[in-house]
Amino acid sequence: MSKNFDELRPGREGPDGFGVPGVRRGAYPSQWNWEELNSSYRPRLIAAGIVRFQLTREECEDAAQTVFLKILTQNPRVRDPKAYLRAAFLHQAQNVAEMKLRRREREAALEDWREIGVDEFGNAERQAEKIRMVTAVTGAFRRVGDKCQKVIRSYCIDECTLNETAEKSGFSSKTVWKRVQECLKRMRVCLES
After folding, report:
1. Which of 19, 20, 47, 133 is 20 to 30 A from 4 (CA-CA)?
2. Helices 57-74 and 81-115: angle between axes, nearest 10 degrees
3. How many CB atoms lie within 10 A of CB 74?
4. Euclidean distance between CA atoms 78 and 35, whole angstroms
């Protein structure tokens, strides 16, 4: 027992390398030398944050600084400062890693919207209107029937000439033109209803 106490004497570290220099067992927080704890444990905590959460050194430094600032301002009453420091730092580093992941997800979603041309909120409204319009036209196109769909697809979507559309459908150019007119009227009726 005295050997364990000697290992925790001021200025010594425990056998695992995480001993508490300057702190005796059962000491109150006001008796802990936080500056010494900061200087002795900070490199290990930062290394743990880099390895466990794939954070940058700067992000780990910020997490460690936040933890030590909370300790100094809140003056927690804990029995084992080593365990408290590790738990508090790992909790803070996990929060930083989760925020980083959410930021990446938001940026990826924003990148997807940029690919279809949505950059600003006003542009997003215009894009949403275009999507509603395309959805309505597609619905009307589905309701006009197969013959009209073939004529409209060939003439309007595939951009074939009247003669090419006539050859595909087996009708004269004049008949194809009349059908295109008639089918577009049907689609307008479907869009208005």
Report:
1. 47
2. 130
3. 9
4. 17
Residue that the structure tokens 């300057």 belong to:
22
Give the count of alpha carbons within 13 A of 3, CB side only.
1
- In this structure, the answer to whether residues 27 and 91 fall within a common structural domain is yes
Q: Are residues 128 and 162 in the same domain?
A: yes
Residues 42 and 61 placed together within one structural domain of the fold = yes
Q: Give the tokens for residue 33.
A: 């030398």
Could you state, in chain order, the average pLDDT of each consecutive group of 10 residues for the chain (193 residues)? 39 44 49 76 92 93 90 78 87 93 79 60 72 83 84 84 85 87 88 80
pTM for this prediction: 0.46
Domain boundary among 93, 113, 133: 113
How many other C-beta atoms are found inside a 10 Å radius of the C-beta of residue 99? 11
What CATH number is attached to the domain comprising 169? Answer: 1.10.10.10
- Which SS3 state, helix, strand or coil, does residue 46 take? helix
Dihedral (Cα; 15, 16, 22, 26), 10-degree rounding: -90
Cβ–Cβ < 8 Å for 46, 60? yes
Domain around 139: 122-192
Token pair recorded at residue 2: 């005295």
